[in-house]
Write a structure and sequence with these properties.
elongated; mainly beta; 3-stranded antiparallel beta sheet
């Protein structure tokens, strides 16, 4: 789920995270693919950012967490906005 943040170059993204394995996940990274969208709906660029996964996460459990995802302010001129369209997780 996405929601606007205070700045046009940021967005609040709520992610459901599940550990379907049997052992605890001790660390990992979430990667957010955020698109820069122009006033006419044109997708100008995609920027990937990363944030740590909430850990530890016990095996067989799930958690929902909200992240503030931002790109550099200069990438989003007036009239443009961001949309985070894909989130991937890498557990370690």
């Amino acid at each position: 789920m996405r929601a606007p943040a205070a700045d046009r170059w940021c967005e609040r993204v709520t992610v459901g995270i599940a550990n379907t394995g049997s052992t605890a996940a001790r660390s990992g990274t979430l990667r957010f693919e955020t698109h820069i969208i122009g006033a006419l709906g044109i997708d100008w660029a995609t920027v990937t950012t990363a944030q740590p996964l909430p850990a530890p996460l016990a095996g067989g459990t799930a958690r929902t967490q909200t992240y503030t995802v931002c790109v550099e302010s200069w990438r989003v001129p007036l009239g443009m906005h961001v949309e985070t369209r894909r989130v991937t997780a890498d557990w370690s």
